[in-house]
Amino acid sequence: MSLDLAGQLPDPNEVRAFIADTTPAKVKRIRLIEKLIASPAFIDHWTLKWGDLLQANRKYLGEKGVYEFDEWIRESFTANKPYDKMVREILSSSGSSNQNPAANFFRVTRDPKPTMEKTTQVFLGVRMVCAQCHDHPFERWTQNQYYEMSAFYSALGIRPGYEVGEEIIYNQRADFDMKHPKDGRVMKPAFIVPASYGSTGPVPTDSHRRTALAEWVTSRDNPFFAKSTVNRVWSYFFGRGIIDPVDDIRASNPPSNPALLDALTKDFLDHNFDLRQLMRTITNSRTYQASMTTNEWNAGDADNFSHAIPRRLAAEELLDALTLATGVRPNLPEVPPDTRAEQLPDPHVGKDGFLDLFGRPSRESSCECERRSDISLPQALNLVNGQTISDAVAGGNGRVAKAILSGKSDHDLVEELYLASFSRTPTAAEAELGLKYLSSGSRGRAALAQDLLWALVNSKPFLYNY
Amino acid sequence: MLVIPGHRCHTCEGPTRRELLRAGSIGLFGLNLAQFLSWQGAAKGASKLEGSRGFGSAKSVIMVFLQGGPSHIDIWDPKPDAPLNIRGEFKPIKTKIPGTNISEIMPMMADAISKATLIRSMSYTPNGLFNHTAAIYQMLTGYPPDRVSPSGQLEPPSPADFPTAGSHVSKLKPPTEAVLPFVELPRPLQESGVIGKGGAAGFLGKAYDPYRMYQDPAKPLQIDDLSLRKDISADRLKDRFELLKGINGSMPDLEKALHSQAIDEYYGKAFDLVLSGKARDAFDLSKESDKMRERYGMTTFGQGLLLSRRLIEAGTRFVQMNWPAVANGNPEIDAWDTHAANFGPLKNLHCPKLDRGLSALLEDMDDRGLLKETLVVAVGEFGRSPRVGVSTSGNSNAPDGRDHWPYCYSAVVAGCGIARGAQYGESDQTASSPKDKPVHPNDLLATTYYALGIDPDMQVLNHLNQPRELVKGKVVTELWA
Predict the structure, then answer these.
(1) Which of A440, B31, B191, B396: disulfide with B132, CB 3.0–4.6 Å?
(2) What pairs with residue B122 in β-bridges?
(3) Which of A191, A217, A243 is the last residue of a domain?
(4) pLDDT tens digits for B384-426?
(5) For residue B5, which residues of chain A lie inside 8 Å, CB to CB?
(6) Which residues of chain B are within 8 Å of residue A362 when distances are taken between CB atoms?
(7) At A178, phi and psi to the nearest 5?
């Protein structure tokens, strides 16, 4: 839960306090969820996720741009800005990218067509891309609709600003017609489905047309916006959307549980696009709190959320979890020494090999598929014998070294290592295994304790969120 | 209304498998269920090709990739009867292939070509872009690049890219032993700031990326991941693994849920790799005699080829040995990109390395019996303009420089039963286009997959689970003797 909400393992002391707390489990859990949602790590975690989605990447934005954009996303989550407001701010932004960092959104795709594709994919979960060249073969989107939607961005202009790395997003006053590639006819902006856009009159065709798109995307009656957002957020907690892939909503890719999706969508709307409330609803649910234990009827199920399905920790989560478990922070290049991996503003910093090896997305596209969580031989090699873990486990200022210096008993040492790695105390059998190993005498006590920590951070319960 | 255009455009992701199934059921594409199933079956096994000439004849591949675009006419395909501004400065010399001459600057290969087939009809017409990265991407993935940045350069590698050949191979034919499946030496593919395009696993996921050994093999190599760390003895690593087994075993539900992830297999392989030292030993060139090392040449390229042979010997499936220079680098230092100067650099700098290294590789592989089951390919992303001093790519050229030329160039292929001492295809009188038997880069890729026992017509699923052809090419079965 701590990983899902805040991307971090809890400190052993917090785990101890949670266990010692005699409040009924149900109440304890609700309180914990509140505590996590209120934590700074929560902001880091969701800033990272939305940084992926909005492609905060210095390749497109420059160094200043990426920090400004990251900060803007961070502030939006800190203020718990209603999501419709946040998206409206992005889509209607204009002016200096330095003064209005939300406008950085447009600096990534730049041209009308890819910007439209990204807008629909990220905020509506709809892929329009196929319709660029032909009517979508199995969906209702036509090629005409592709260009009608793109026409909302046809007046989008980007020009250099006054400071280095600054760009100005503006609306062009002339020559912004979107033409159909087949016959060159001028396509007027039109929405793919009806929804309100701040006016009951005709869709505006002047140079301010994209404001209407911003209103339309984020309106309460847009059939995709709230639904796709709920679905996407759900997928962050379960590894899978109710509609999956989350950015491919269409009639031929139906939800596994339409009633659930509708109820969540309604709840999201009832709470005025409150992302925190949505996460609260999800994490307090019995579905989310289900264990991974299966019975004979649901063992084969991977689509219906009948039991938890373990997910490998994301690259940044894994590195931060290693830091917590071992007590040694790896030196990430180019950032202040105490920066956590989850706090990095974009994939061009902290390149020590580990994060990229474990599937940190390069933010070249806004597709969720960029983040990989498979496991490979080079990863296993790195975990078994690579520098990051070897150094962390044996660190002179690390958890093992400190525990031994402070004179911890074997029993306390084993408990501490389990608490730090698994966020729980060892079972009797696990404790026995650890104690037996520590007393084996085959090498010095510190070395044996390092071995135990090595094995813990290489184990499946550590590498996987379950 | 359903409209399927005849022309596929680059931004169209195409239908997913599920859509195809639906489409099949309603008769779209004229695809019925039986056809669909056979099409799917093709993706699984390659039984229809079993027993075909050369199919599955190779266990492994060394791809000697001469990025930069070596001048075919000055190296492999001399045209002494052409006008001076075409034939250039070098004289032809006889080779062990009767009637086939190569350039005088390749004396050792004139001999060693007796173990290989020289293809003189490599050819393709680029789709728009005329630069190195586009051609490299085409050569190694089998697909033309589709995303070009406003600067005219390609986009850098993307997770949606088509996979490089070695990635497909390491997924479709994983090695049976604890070795690195796919190794790339000794530097990335590169044009200006675009690094590694066409050299990554792309939509297969990083798990199938090459093990990148970007170091100069002419110097001692750092291989920390593969060597036991100095504070960890073999016994200690064994103890750690025992302990790990015990810890994993204490959570049976998790073990069960993760069964399909094959984590234990990866860990087992990593353990064996580190402990057996096989991969580490493969990288240890000090185990070779000085004589052998000198035979390959004490250069980055020569030692890289020797390292390639050692890796193949250890069981690696695919070695991608890149020419150790940026594709569009300075020809007067190390690059094949001879716009600014052609004859001097070829004669004095690049060809001596290529001649020595490639001939050593072929002879050494043959002596050790490794050539029987290894396919060796040496090729660049294109050749160079038959006429000197003219621009064919928009680059400026010195009076004696040669520009990019993908319409006709040469490749050396050897091993796994491919004809020894043969020529395949022929170019016209100015080496401008193939006179017969043209071989498209995709044909060369298809032939490579085929040699490894992979049906080149199979479908693979991309990151969006959409089916894509492994490669659209025709196997050149006539290469096999």
Answers:
(1) B191
(2) B409, B439
(3) A217
(4) 999 999 988 878 889 989 999 999 999 999 999 999 999 999 9
(5) 133-134
(6) 158-159
(7) -95, 120
